[in-house]
């Protein structure tokens, strides 16, 4: 709005006016693209959290007795075996820690 007032009062040239409008439009489009990327990432993270929550609740309830090794290999990055439990690091960046039953 300030640009329009400056232009209408002849404080800036027509070329500068349209250049500033074009720059503002470009900045707005760039910001919208960044926002869309962030929303997409947030959606992906929410989906991963929901899947992990579902997997954890099924595991805790004892609902899984056998898992296909191909499925495990597809989602697992690496496994750390400790003295008191194991850590399963998934390719999505999440980790599941389980302590051994004593």
Hey, roughly how much beta strand do the residues contain? 15-25%
Number of helical stretches of at least 4 residues: 3
Name the helix and strand elements from N-terminus to C-terminus, one letter apiece.
HHHEEE
The structural domain count equals: 2
Low-confidence stretches: none
Radius of gyration: 27 Å
Please give the share of residues in helix.
Answer: 55-70%
What's the rounded overall pLDDT mean? 85
Cα shape: rod-shaped
Widest sheet, order of strands: 1-2-3
Total DSSP E strands: 3
Folded structure, characterized:
- With 102 residues, this protein is an alpha+beta fold.
- The protein has two domains: 1-65, no CATH class; 66-102, no CATH class.
- Helix content is 60%, strand content 17%.
- The chain has helices at 2-8, 14-60, 69-75, and strands at residues 76-81, 85-90, 95-99.
- A hairpin with a 3-residue loop joins strand 1 and strand 2.
- The longest helix is centred in the middle third of the chain and has 47 residues, at 14-60.
- The mean pLDDT is 85.
């Amino acid at each position: 709005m300030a640009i329009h007032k400056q232009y209408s009062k002849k404080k800036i040239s027509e070329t500068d006016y349209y250049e500033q409008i074009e720059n503002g439009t470009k900045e707005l489009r760039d910001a919208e693209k960044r926002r869309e990327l962030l929303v997409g990432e947030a959606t992906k993270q929410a989906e991963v959290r929901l899947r992990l929550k579902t997997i954890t609740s099924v595991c805790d309830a004892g609902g899984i007795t056998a898992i296909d090794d191909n499925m495990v290999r597809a989602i697992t990055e690496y496994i750390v075996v400790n003295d008191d439990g194991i850590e399963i690091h998934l390719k999505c960046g999440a980790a599941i820690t389980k302590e051994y039953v004593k």
